[in-house]
Amino acid sequence: MPRYLFDSNIFIQAKNFHYHFGYCAAFWDWVAAAHEAGLVFSTQSVRSELLRGDADDVLVRWVHERLPDTFFIDDLRDANVMTHYGAVQQVAIDRNHYQLAALRQFADINYADAFLIAAGRAYGYTVVSFEAGLMQRKNRVMLPDICQLYGVRTEVFWDVLRNHCSGTFVLRVPE
């Protein structure tokens, strides 16, 4: 069975656009159920990004209330992940392509992408993100590009849902 690591933008965009808590609670239930089934995970670095929102933000509350500690790989304390983290950074540097500011952002401990890639490689997870690769971009290190260069599988979010979800929208008729 495949195992997926979700990028923070999966949760943020789902909340803001596609699967707002107000009309699509089934998506959020699916995420929790997919984790319980051993399918969906993320990293503590992603958790930290998600919790930067206001304490009363619905996504922040959901992370606190619904996602168990087992959902998030403790990437900063995992020697295997940290070994790969160094290698991921080196892949970006060795490309001799990115602007210094882009490399600095990618190496920032508060920025989850490199940790997500490292955890994916360390444990054989597939990384799922809304971010699109763009190899020619120089002012930002793109997660899918480094995944490709470092041999970490990526999958489009919609394909994950298509393969592992059978959802329905229930009509609510106004009275």
TrEMBL record:
InterPro entries with a match to the protein in the record: PIN-like_dom_sf (IPR029060), UCP008505 (IPR016541)
Pfam (any one): DUF4411
Top-rank lineage group of the source organism: Bacteria
Name the record gives this protein: PIN domain protein
Originating organism: Amantichitinum ursilacus
